[in-house]
Amino acid sequence: PAPIYVNAEPLSIPVMRGEGVRHYFYVAVSLPVGTEAKRDEVKEQMPRLRDAYLRDLTARPAMRQDIADAIDFDAIKQRLMAINEKMLGNGVVEDVLIIRSLRAPG
Fold first, then answer.
1. pTM for the whole structure
2. String of b and e for 74-95 (b: at least 16 CB within 10 Å)?
3. Quick check: 54 pLDDT over 90?
């Protein structure tokens, strides 16, 4: 069967420096699911998922420690997958695919 994906609207993640925003990262993710029923469930819960994604990534930005101003995509994938499993249960979302990213000044 053909893969089934749910694309989330891009996430805007502020990266703070002191009291101000240093820059923003915009990240678009796609969530592969195994069935149309799971796709419908993810789509129905997407507002709650996006809220949880944004709260998590804003509270603890995922920046790499070894490269200045670089986002840690592996950490983002792990954290968003943990949110998916907590909110939807294991096995509903198979992975988190980062399909686009952009850094913009703050």
1. 0.88
2. eebbebbeebbeeebeeebbbe
3. yes
